[in-house]
Amino acid sequence: MGVKGVTIVTDYRQIMKLLLKEQSYRQIAAVLGCAPRTISKARRVLEDEHLVTVEQVDALTAEDIDRLFSDGRKSGSSEFVPVEIGMITAARLGRKKPPLKVLWAKYLQTPAPAGVRHYGYERFCQLVAEHVRMNDLTAPIAHSPGHTLQVDWAGTPMRLTDPITRQHTKVSVFVATLPYSGLVFAYGTLDEKMPAWLECHRRVFEFLGGVPLIVVPDNASTASNQISSSSRAREVNPAYAEFLEYHQTAAVPARAYRPRDKGNVEAGVKVVTNWVIHFLEGRVFVTLDDLNAAIAEQVEVINSRVPFRGESRSRRDWFEELERAELLDLPEHRWEPVVWRKAKVHRDWHIQIDTIKYSVPYEFAGLTVDVRIIGTQLEVLAAAEVIAMHQLGVRKNGYVTNPEHAPAHLTDTTGLWTRAYFTRQAAKVGPSTVVAIERLLDGRKIEAQGFRSCMNILDLGKSGNRMLLEQACTRLITDEYRQITYTAVKHALTAVRAEQDERPRSTPAADRTSTPAPVRPTGRDTSGAYLAGAEAFSLDALTRKETGDAS
């Protein structure tokens, strides 16, 4: 408002009401961001004034609050001309925002009865500052209506729960707030990537019915990147800049280590965390639409709560009366960033985009289709016609399957993967493999989501490994409660192979005595033979007869 040093925002009225509702000091501090000493001061006022109901606190006027929590200085005196604080703050809340010196000059023109003086400029500013602090008017006075929208991700996630598997999926909560009016917006997304970031901005613009002059995001990588390691300066990401340019606005990223740049949204995040995320944490949500419907209800409670800033009007009232008309118009056509991909429909009537599989009608198995991604929605097209629609999946290597796409009671399943196909292939390996395949498929709510695992298991039996695969499956199915998966079969097969490799390949020595060694036939007796010289092999030597003469 032009008065430096007014940074404390204390809602004493709300502190007293929370104390009467038996909230702890820690809870009140978390919600309102105030110090324990401030809460203690509010408790003393409750005791001294004998205030025991919320209705009694609501009945207190702004002047009463000012009197009860003042530091001893009076807002006025019979010795001075009273200051029309309401008129002063109303002027500062307007678009022109005249300087305080101008307003003080106008105050000096107010007629003064005999013996009554006008306040000096310094004391005039002090009185206005006290009123602003007591009634939480710092934000609207420091900001122009329709000028700024602050955005950020809440640090605390929410979650969805699968009704069958009971597995949880994390949901990030986007928070936006208008500093001038205090209006809050929140929306849940399955990730914090660029498509979700832009979708949240589109939704908040439509929620407001207009576009602010600038958007102040936190330093999330979705919004901006650091220009260099040696500089704290950041530049807006091209996709984000293109989106904002389409809406005739621009992003001004909050400066690092400058908390005042985004103080209002951090306060908004705190409010959403306590009154939306924590408030709803006991409820179970199956779909993102259900979750966001509940978020919207709680956000409206926040925006409609009275009093706000010490006045008998809400955030919504501030926005409707003073800010909505100052927003820029929405574009005539909605922003729709489109990403195109191509994919082949596999025999399990699913396509794969990144690591996630999406179902299409089984009739399109074997064909190549076009995939159009608009925000968080995925569409599959064949011959320029949409044949399937899904929300983008978030679970790595997961499935997004519409059961209506499955072949039902068909006699001709040529070219398709079916339960019968995999059991026939498993029978070529052995009965244990058949049981393993059937148990794997029985464990899936939608059989088609297990087809690729079945194919991977049967592939383990190739290259002469059928016997090993059968032995591995035999081990697994002996435990009726053991879940059959590709990974489990692979590990069991590896164990069987390792055991076989450790078996000895030769007969132990102890067993050799049981079977006598065969006797090889021999020729003439060569015992005592020795090697002679070459002359022993001459003709004379070989034909010479023994003479028997004695030497």
Just give the CATH class of the largest domain: Alpha Beta
* General shape: elongated
Task: Indicate the mean pLDDT.
Answer: 79
Q: How many structural domains in the coordinates?
A: 4
**Major sheet size, sense and barrel closure:** 6 strands, mixed
Q: Quick one: CATH superfamily of the largest domain?
A: Ribonuclease H-like superfamily/Ribonuclease H
Uncertain segments are 1-9, 71-78, 255-261, 546-551
Give the radius of gyration.
42 Å
Number of DSSP strand runs: 15
Q: What's the architecture of the largest domain in CATH terms?
A: 2-Layer Sandwich
CATH topology of the largest domain: Nucleotidyltransferase, domain 5
The amount of helix comes to: 25-40%
**What would you call the structural class?**
alpha+beta
Distance between the termini: 148 Å
What is the helix tally?
A: 20
Proportion of strand residues = 5-15%
Structure in words:
By secondary structure, this protein is α+β, with helices and mostly antiparallel strands. The chain has four domains: 12-139, no CATH class; 148-326, Ribonuclease H-like superfamily/Ribonuclease H (Nucleotidyltransferase, domain 5, 2-Layer Sandwich); 338-405, no CATH class; 419-500, no CATH class. The chain contains 20 helices and 15 strands. It has helices spanning 12-20, 25-32, 36-49, 54-58, 62-68, 85-93, 100-108, 121-134, 138-142, 194-208, 238-246, 263-277, 288-304, 315-323, 419-427, 431-442, 451-459, 466-477, 486-502, 539-543; strands at residues 148-153, 158-161, 168-177, 184-189, 214-217, 224-226, 234-236, 250-251, 338-344, 350-353, 356-359, 368-374, 377-382, 385-391, 399-400. The strands form four sheets. Strands 1, 2, 3, 4, 5 and 8 form a six-stranded mixed sheet that branches. Helix 1 packs across helix 3, helix 15 packs antiparallel against helix 16 and helix 18 crosses helix 19 (486-502). The radius of gyration is 42 Å and the shape is elongated. Residues 1-9, 71-78, 255-261 and 546-551 have low confidence and may be disordered.
